[in-house]
Write a structure and sequence with these properties.
Elements (H helix, E strand, L loop, with lengths): L12 E5 L3 H4 L1 H12 L3 E5 L12 E3 L6 H14 L5 H7 E2 L1 H8 L4 H8 L3 H13 L3 E5 L1 H4 L4 H14 L10 E3 L6 H6 L6 E2 L3 E2 L3 H11 L11 H10 L4 E5 L3 H4 L3 H10 L2 E6 L11 E4 L8 E4 L4 E5 L12 H11 L9 H11 L16 E2 L23 E2 L18 E6 L15 H6 L4 E5 H7 L6 E5 L4 E9 L6 E5 L27 E9 L1
Parallel strand pairs: 1-2, 1-5, 2-3, 4-15, 5-6, 9-10, 10-11, 16-20, 17-19
Antiparallel strand pairs: 7-8, 12-13, 13-14, 16-21, 17-20, 18-19, 18-21
Helix pairs in contact: 3-6, 3-7, 3-9, 6-7, 12-14
Length: 527
């Protein structure tokens, strides 16, 4: 996030797109509701009528996969009416002319047809965003999990730059992270081309720095993303996979493909706190300690590095992740010894510029937001205040492109997935909570009441969904919160897993699969 979570409280306008915030990020969702009570305006764009739509001044129920077209349409209106921040654009951005030329093509009339919404709603949303002094955009996987996901993020950036909202308090571009330490994992080099601090593994000066710090040789080429690893495993190119705290047998697209890939490697290791669906396929399972059984830090969605404190001793033979990794390192004859996570944190801050001033002592009571370059720095509440990290903000001319798979005669419905309030990710933890299972015990598919009536499907009835990759049987939930040509299914449930159906087609830049759009058919099975 360019800004902090609580800054939403003082926003003049909030634009939520591709995020079911009150269910997936309920704390930030509660801040949004408080902001509305203070007078903020709310724009929501989503294929489903999510809870926030009921609070919205403008709700745009767009077709799945049309985010870029909508954003371009709003920017067309803003430029056409002269509401863009000319001074900001001149001083702090580049490539505006090329971008503006493309945006001319995205008239509200054209965009309304692409997105399946009213032309006037696009105009009203554009005016509401542009006329606000402080407007923040909040998005999640509804933007990123498309074959055009990276360009979708660029389009979000374009809109924020256009109105001078990057580098401003209570505004900005705010991706909401899906898990508690995703930000921290990325910060620490959990990306194919990165070492800690987003320092690129193919840059000689970076390699030299880390080889000196770690007293070992390190690779100088970017690695593979998870989809590329699984493709390589199925093809026989990848022989060994080590999975930590991840359950791709439920969470990844095209589960039949995932099963083939994991079954084809010579050796599979899974490190987790429970025996997950993925761990059941492993040659070796390493029992890891839970958050309550270890010390360390998590870095949350607003870049805040916070202490995690051990409440109980690890149960059974489980160990904290860092101890398991250190044991393996020693068996591989790398002799560094850490006696406590604070020592690891001390190393992190010496090699990661954004963490340079973050010590265990400083975050004993309250976390610090990076970048925090030195011990006297208070941390950074919001980014790009005086200057962009790259010097100037870059406008990108981004065209709308259809999803990789569209509805057709054989598969006439668009299928999309997401999370619900009561379960977390693949239910590795929440699936063991009796109260949550009473509230949300099993999978279902949302189907519009008009569509259900045409197909003779009644609420609660069993149905079969089929895509080009697989099929699942689940229960129908007849509703008016989704359009007639769209079906929605939560992905949490291993039984009737939505990801048997989803499309593994990748974004060519970030290599993220298109989990949010697939073509399916549905058939009635009966009670």
């Amino acid at each position: 996030m360019t800004n902090s979570s609580k800054e939403v409280l003082d926003s003049d306008a909030i634009f939520v797109i591709g995020s079911n915030t009150t269910e997936n990020h309920p704390v930030i969702g509660s801040y949004m509701k408080q902001a509305l009570n203070r007078g903020a305006k709310l724009i929501v764009a989503d294929p489903r009528r999510i809870e926030l739509a009921d609070y919205a001044d403008i709700f745009l129920q767009i077709e799945p996969g049309t985010n870029i077209a909508l954003l371009n349409g709003m920017m067309n209106v803003i430029i056409d009416r002269g509401l863009h921040d000319r001074e900001y654009i001149e001083e702090r951005t580049e490539n505006f002319e090329e971008f503006a030329e493309l945006i001319k093509e995205y008239t509200p009339e054209r965009v309304a047809k692409i997105c399946g919404v009213e032309e006037q709603d696009i105009i009203d949303a554009a005016l509401m965003y542009a006329e606000a002094d402080k407007a923040g955009i909040y998005y999640a996987m509804g933007i990123t999990q498309h074959t055009t996901g990276t360009k979708g993020v660029m389009s979000v950036s374009n809109l924020s730059l256009l109105c001078g909202n990057i580098g401003k308090e209570s505004a900005g571009v705010n991706p909401l992270r899906g898990q508690n330490n995703v930000q921290g994992a990325c910060d620490m080099g959990g990306l194919p081309a990165d070492l800690p601090g987003y320092q690129k593994v193919f840059k000689p000066e970076v390699v030299e720095k880390f080889e000196k710090a770690w007293s070992t040789k390190i690779p100088t080429e970017a690695g593979l993303t998870i989809p590329e690893i699984l493709d390589g495993a199925e093809d026989g190119e990848v022989k060994f996979i080590y999975i930590m705290g991840e359950n791709p047998m439920v969470s990844d697209p095209d589960i039949n493909h995932v099963r083939k890939a994991l079954s084809n490697v010579d050796f599979l290791v899974v490190q987790d706190i429970f025996m997950t669906e993925t761990a059941e396929l492993a040659d070796v399972v390493l029992p890891a300690a839970s958050f309550a059984e270890k010390d360390g830090t998590f870095t949350n969605t607003e870049r805040r590095v916070q202490r995690v404190r051990k409440a109980i001793e690890p149960i059974g033979e489980s160990k904290p992740d860092w101890k398991i990794l250190m044991d393996i390192m020693h068996r591989l004859e790398h002799r560094d010894i850490y006696l406590h996570p604070s020592e690891i944190m001390e190393e992190i801050r010496t090699v990661t510029p954004q963490y340079g001033g973050i010590t265990y002592d400083r975050i004993d009571e309250e976390g610090i937001q990076w970048p925090c370059p030195d011990i006297d720095h208070p941390g950074t509440k919001y980014l790009h205040k005086d200057v962009m990290a790259r010097g100037k903000g870059m406008f990108m001319a981004i065209d709308h492109r259809d999803s990789a798979e569209l509805a057709d005669k054989e598969y006439p419905f668009i299928f999309t997935t997401g999370r619900i309030l009561y379960h977390y990710h693949t239910r590795t933890m929440t699936g063991r909570v009796e109260g949550l299972n009473k509230i949300a015990p099993e999978s279902y598919v949302e189907i519009n009441e008009v569509t259900a009536n045409k197909l003779g499907i009644v609420d609660g009835e069993r149905v079969r969904l089929t895509s080009r990759r697989g099929n699942v049987i689940t229960s129908a939930r007849v509703t008016d919160i989704i359009d007639e040509n769209t079906l929605f299914m939560p992905f949490h449930y291993a039984e009737s897993a939505a990801n048997y159906l989803t499309n593994p087609a990748l974004d060519s830049i970030a290599k993220i699969p298109e989990l949010k759009v697939a073509a399916v058919k549905i058939e009635k099975l009966g009670s």
